[in-house]
Amino acid sequence: IWFPDTDERLLLTASIGNLVLVPKPINDRARNHDFERKLAIYFAPSEQPVSHLSERLKGRSTWRAEDILESESLLMAHIATVWGFGGKLETAGAASSPRSWRRPRTWARRS
After folding, report:
1. In the chain, which residues have pLDDT < 70?
2. Helices (H) and strands (E) in the chain, counts
3. How many beta carbons lie within 10 A of that of residue 44, not counting itself?
4. Residue 52 in 3-state DSSP?
5. Helical H runs in the chain?
6. Residue 27 in contact with residue 42, Cβ under 8 Å?
7. Residue 102: what are its φ and ψ, rounded to 5°?
């Protein structure tokens, strides 16, 4: 059992780190399937490509508390970068740099 503690499971299920950015039709097919089945749906050759931020799931075999927390740190760092929040966010491990993520040209930067 990955989340034997019910409170921890509920907290992590609602975490931004547990979200995956995929097109709505893919999300509708993945629904509440187990992690392995969701990945098969997300990365099926016949599907639309998923976002760069979701590519990090490719090849994974588990999705545990530490994975969700690392994902949360990564996504929060991207949010801080995109919206220009001041201050430095603490991030976990390799999640400290957004690297190749790009802001779409249609988004205006606030001054």
Report:
1. 1-2, 86-111
2. 4, 0
3. 11
4. helix
5. 6-13, 24-30, 35-42, 65-83
6. no
7. -125, 145
**How far apart are the C-alpha atoms of 56 and 25, rounded to whole Å?**
20
pTM given for the model: 0.66
pLDDT, one tens digit per residue, over 41-72 is 999 988 778 888 888 898 899 989 999 999 99
Burial class (CB in 10 A: 0-12, 13-18, 19+), 65: middle
Tokens of 78: 């991207």
Helical residues (DSSP H) of 48-105, grouped into ranges: 65-83
User: How far, CA to CA in Å, does 96 sit from each of 37, 55, 70, 74, 88?
Assistant: 29, 16, 10, 7, 10
